[in-house]
Amino acid sequence: MHDLVGKKALITGGNSGIGLATARRFIEAGADVAISGRDPVTLAEARATLEALEPVQAGRCKVLALRSDAADLGAIDGLIAEVAGAFGRIDVLFVNAGIAQAAPVEAVSEAQFDAMVSINLKGVFFTVQKALPHMGEGGSIIVTTSITNRMGSPNFSIYGACKAAQRSLVQSLGLELIARGIRINAICPGPIDTPIYGRFGLPGEMEPGIRAEISRKSPIKRFGTPDEVAKVALFLASDAAAYVVGEEIVVDGGMSLL
Ligand code: NAD
């Protein structure tokens, strides 16, 4: 596997799902890792899990678990300042925090629209902007998009639009940032088995049916695991991806080919 020995990483939404699996991979590869999220309980649990891991090199990696709202610009300032203060710099930024709320077009409220755009678009852009002064030559930024940005996804129109905007940001910033030696790329997951399916704002009894229908439709006939995404994040973070710029890597078991 790829090596991140001595690298300093920040993963937003690192207390759950894809972010937590990636934090695990990054630490095992030798990075010091800061994770952020909103829930203090899962942040503390994630920190304990990560601190118990064995990195590739001798000695312990540093783990920071910081409470920070990805939609709040002041909170993003505070998060970046804390990580830069503790680590001295940021080599790898994984902008991964996100929410998906399901609603048919008539039912989308202004509050829902604003919440999704604030976290999934505004927060993503400003996290990148505010981290940049602490990043330099060889830095890697990764954004978690979604296959909803390339397929129609009924009831997820705003979520899909935010993810398409993220993909566009990655292409434009890919060209802007490579001049200073910083690569930005996207990971585009299909259905991955994380707690996000319980957070769609739908009645809980619908979740098993939704999951079964997704698995039935999937060419590979199952959900992906968070670790299957984390391994791609590790590749993009590492020097193995030194010539990969502004790209979006799809990790979806073939779903978006349908
Ligand atoms: P998850 O719900 O397990 O994780 C989402 C993370 O985002 C959590 O750690 C949560 O704390 C964080 N978060 C949400 N709102 C936040 C806020 N305002 N401030 C700070 N943190 C916040 O789900 P996941 O599946 O691991 O999602 C990670 C990313 O992957 C998201 O961007 C999601 O859109 C994307 N994604 C997931 C799937 C999937 O099937 N699981 C598919 C495509 C894309």
What integer is the average pLDDT?
Answer: 96
**Backbone CA Rg:** 17 Å
Poorly predicted regions are none
The proportion of residues forming helix, as a percent range, comes to 40-55%
Taking strands numbered 1, 2, ... along the chain, how are they ordered across the largest sheet? Answer: 3-2-1-4-5-6-7
Main sheet makeup: 7 strands, parallel
SSE ordering: EHEHEHEHEHEHHE
List the total number of helices. 7
Structural class: alpha/beta
Share in β-strands: 5-15%
What is the total tally of β strands? 7
Bound molecules: nicotinamide-adenine-dinucleotide
Distance between the termini: 31 Å
Backbone shape: globular
Structure report:
This protein is of the alpha/beta class and 258 residues long. 41% of the residues lie in helices and 14% in strands. A 7-stranded parallel β-sheet has the order 3-2-1-4-5-6-7, sandwiched between helices. Strand 1, helix 1 and strand 2 form a beta-alpha-beta unit. The chain is globular and about 50 Å long. The two termini are 31 Å apart. The relative contact order is 0.16. The model has no long low-confidence stretch (mean pLDDT 96). Nicotinamide-adenine-dinucleotide (NAD) binds next to helix 1. Nicotinamide-adenine-dinucleotide binds at residues 13, 15-19, 37-39, 69-71, 96-100, 119, 144, 146, 189, 191-192, 194-196, 199.
